[in-house]
Amino acid sequence: MNANTVQPQRKAVVLLSGGLDSMLAAKVIQDQGIHVEGINFYTGFCVEGHTHAIRKQDQNKNKRNNALWVAETLGIKLHIIDIVEEYKDIVYNPKHGYGANLNPCLDCKVFMVGKAKEWMDENGFDFIVTGEVMGQRPKSQRKHTFPIIARESGAEDRLLRPLCAKLMMPSLPEREGWVDREKLHDFSGRSRSPQIALARALGIEEWAQPAGGCCFLTDENYSAKLADLWQFRGEKRYELDDIMLLKVGRHLRPRPHFKLIISREEGEGLFMEGYRYMFAHMQTASHMGAFALIDGKLEEGDLELAAQILGRYSKAEPGEALTVEVGGLPGGVSKLVTVPAFGPQDMQPEWQV
Amino acid sequence: MAHYELDARRLLCPMPVIRTQNRIKELEAGDTLDVIATDPGVKADIPAWCRVHGHSVEAIRDLPERREIVVTVRVAG
Ligand code: SF4
Fold it and tell me: Between chain B's N and C termini, which has fewer beta carbons within 10 Å?
């Protein structure tokens, strides 16, 4: 090579989740003089960012978006991409199946790295970086799944995993000398100590520790609610509003053809009121109590049953007359219903979704 | 320099940020954009997004009677 040739500065796009691993991966590559920008995908199931506004008790908690916070801490740009629509196919029909719950992790990784590849090509970047660690997650981060992600996403050897690169064949950025393989890592397994030690060595003192992984699909209760939604719709289908509502309230299905979503506190009630235009809804009128959305079709006697159940979550004593205001019925009809409130003993455990 | 509005009401974060990001791509340096939102998360997230991209937040106004928040962003040059 001509000694006078000026090497272009190489550019990497990092899949930033907001957690420590991708933060470290970005920093390791950034410290090698590579221009780094972050990309973050919004699937609708992400734990980050959306629940904080709902529950009143959470409103004083830290409201930051962790991926943005990481980008700011590292001094890099972050591009947040809405993949809600395209992602549905991954959730409905994961080629590689689900994990312990309805989490299609391997297909999800393939899809996200594939989207990052598209972004890389469109924006003139050279390679993709992820914070994956070999053997860290049961399904998507095993040794034999790594080549699947690289191949099926189309990223091939432009995919670099700085935290475990030394356990793998050198990728293109290593072979071309864009990054120094010696300064990459060989982390494997579920222990977090190597990452924590690296964070300290890189001067990173603070990071987010999202409980329960990157998305609600890994959550057992959430997955049960999604499975219930599909079962009673008779098909695997959801809209963004559906999956938002699965994150709030108590979900009770007293009859196969309708479900109640009952607010547990004021913040949830206010959030759910925003859905009044989509669903029939109820609010206790004679007593202090909760707000509920009714998802499904009501048959004879269902409205009274729903009102009685709402009574269980009001200040009415069991059996006491309770008046409930119902709105958004077919034809925009509203009405008042008076029923004896249910007590805890009237509630059937199988109603719980 | 022109002024624009973006309706991000009833969207939860990060959707208002994504809409802001996508709208700003279409604007010129110096333009201003009022993002009208209902998720209080925008008060933290839009300024953070602006900081990493070099845009500036000119004002954040709470309109409690309408349960709305207006964030005014000026597009970087
Ligand atoms: S936990 Fe969710 S976001 Fe993370 S890889 Fe699995 S499906 Fe994708």
Answer: C
